[in-house]
From TrEMBL:
<feature type="active site" description="Proton acceptor">
    <location>
        <position position="179"/>
    </location>
</feature>
<feature type="binding site">
    <location>
        <position position="120"/>
    </location>
    <ligand>
        <name>substrate</name>
    </ligand>
</feature>
<comment type="similarity">
    <text>Belongs to the LDH/MDH superfamily. MDH type 1 family.</text>
</comment>
<feature type="binding site">
    <location>
        <position position="82"/>
    </location>
    <ligand>
        <name>substrate</name>
    </ligand>
</feature>
<dbReference type="InterPro" id="IPR001252">
    <property type="entry name" value="Malate_DH_AS"/>
</dbReference>
<comment type="subunit">
    <text>Homodimer.</text>
</comment>
<feature type="binding site">
    <location>
        <position position="34"/>
    </location>
    <ligand>
        <name>NAD(+)</name>
    </ligand>
</feature>
<feature type="binding site">
    <location>
        <position position="95"/>
    </location>
    <ligand>
        <name>NAD(+)</name>
    </ligand>
</feature>
<feature type="binding site">
    <location>
        <position position="230"/>
    </location>
    <ligand>
        <name>NAD(+)</name>
    </ligand>
</feature>
<dbReference type="GO" id="GO:0005829">
    <property type="term" value="C:cytosol"/>
</dbReference>
<dbReference type="GO" id="GO:0030060">
    <property type="term" value="F:L-malate dehydrogenase (NAD+) activity"/>
</dbReference>
<dbReference type="Pfam" id="PF00056">
    <property type="entry name" value="Ldh_1_N"/>
</dbReference>
<dbReference type="InterPro" id="IPR001557">
    <property type="entry name" value="L-lactate/malate_DH"/>
</dbReference>
<feature type="binding site">
    <location>
        <begin position="118"/>
        <end position="120"/>
    </location>
    <ligand>
        <name>NAD(+)</name>
    </ligand>
</feature>
<dbReference type="InterPro" id="IPR036291">
    <property type="entry name" value="NAD(P)-bd_dom_sf"/>
</dbReference>
<feature type="binding site">
    <location>
        <begin position="8"/>
        <end position="14"/>
    </location>
    <ligand>
        <name>NAD(+)</name>
    </ligand>
</feature>
<feature type="domain" description="Lactate/malate dehydrogenase C-terminal">
    <location>
        <begin position="148"/>
        <end position="324"/>
    </location>
</feature>
């Protein structure tokens, strides 16, 4: 029996993500939570003739507690999205507190659940979630994931323009680092099967993956950021977490984790001098079972990308940790 919960379920990501979860045969129970509109979204999805039993809650009457109790997987797309001209870090002021408070609820009502953080800035919200769980004495690093799957999905899609591959999802491209601009490091040299990318096309391709989010923000012209592709990516990652928890072997996916707490991750953290980083992680019944160190395999150009990534990432992580320990006055 798998219970999935979406916090922020009425939003641009929350609704299509909830739809995909409702339709999935892997989900037996689905609980939706948001500060607005959950009754309507829940009523609508409840007419779908899939197996998942659905419930929806608002904050009143212990809604968060009711949504989270018994949860196996909690996805968090709650928070405001970007508008043109904003960086993901501009969302910190509002989203940091939203994620902190929701994770406090998880620590209390479903501390053993897998936590999948989508809310931006992921580079800070994941450290916030970790610190909240640590303060509650409930932190299990294997169960906390920053969802960076959209970067992987974009890399697969954009490289297809060059390779012409029929099914883009057949090419596995590791994307490591963080989830914003230059902290996103796609490793096309390690694609499997190998891809031939003409030299003049490589830099624009890397840039497009790094700034794919901006492409959507600009196109939506003030109406938000990626929602449908993010719902696809979030569902794809959640499905892998659930399948691995059910015992399926050999599932590896990049995700932003607290490296010192994952087998094999400590050595990577020491090598890069950063504790939170997205690397390909083998998933299993206990969550993030093993971090893969692909750093020795990256080429010289990719090493330069990694240096830029580290510089940007460090500050965002520290900002998240600091927010939990010294919250700004209200
Ligand atoms: N990790 C990733 O790759 C991506 C992350 N995102 C991020 O996901 C977040 C959500 O984006 P959208 O769905 O487009 O935004 P949205 O504004 O359409 O939806 C957000 C939802 O969160 C709800 N919410 C706000 N405060 C809440 C609280 N305290 N508890 C529960 N729900 C709450 C709102 O009522 C709203 O329904 C943004 O921070 C965005 O930047 C977006 C795309 C990709
Ligand atoms: O760009 C944004 O703000 C939303 C996001 O994280 C993405 O699309 O990758």
């Amino acid at each position: 029996m798998v219970k999935a919960v979406v916090l922020g379920a009425s939003g641009g990501i929350g609704q299509p993500l909830s739809l995909l979860l409702k339709a999935s045969p892997l989900v037996d129970e689905l609980s939706l939570y948001d500060v607005v509109n959950t009754p309507g979204v829940t009523a609508d999805l409840s007419h779908i003739s899939s197996i998942a039993k659905i419930t929806g809650y608002l904050p009143a009457d212990d809604g968060l507690k009711k949504a989270l109790t018994g949860a196996d997987v909690v996805l968090i797309p709650a928070g405001i999205p970007r508008k043109p001209g904003m960086t993901r870090d501009d969302l910190f002021k509002i989203n940091a507190g939203i994620v902190r408070d929701l994770v406090k609820g998880i620590a209390e009502y479903s501390p053993k659940a897998f936590i999948l953080v989508i809310s931006n800035p992921v580079n800070s919200t994941v450290p916030i979630a970790a610190e909240v769980m640590m303060q509650a004495g409930k932190f299990d690093p294997k169960r906390l994931f920053g969802v960076t799957t959209l970067d992987v999905v974009r890399a697969e899609t954009f490289v297809q323009d060059i390779t012409g591959e029929n099914d883009p999802s057949k090419t596995v491209i590791p994307v490591i680092g963080g989830h914003s601009g230059e902290t996103i490091v796609p490793l096309f040299s390690l694609a499997k099967p190998a891809v031939e990318i003409p030299a003049e096309k490589l830099a624009p391709l890397i840039k497009r993956v790094q700034f794919g989010g901006d492409e959507v923000v600009e196109a939506k012209g003030g109406a938000g950021s990626a929602t449908l592709s993010m719902a696809y990516a979030g569902f794809r990652f959640a499905e892998k977490v659930i399948k691995a928890a059910n015992g399926e072997k050999g599932i590896v996916e990049p995700t932003f984790v607290y490296l010192p707490g994952v087998t094999g991750g400590d050595a990577i953290a020491k090598e890069i001098g950063i504790d939170y980083f997205s690397v390909p992680v083998e998933l299993g019944p206990s969550g993030a079972e093993k971090a893969t160190n692909i750093l020795p395999d990256v080429n010289d150009e990719e090493k330069k990308l990694l240096e830029a990534c580290k510089t940007g990432l460090k500050g965002s992580i520290e900002k998240g940790v600091e927010f939990v320990h010294n919250p700004p006055p209200k």
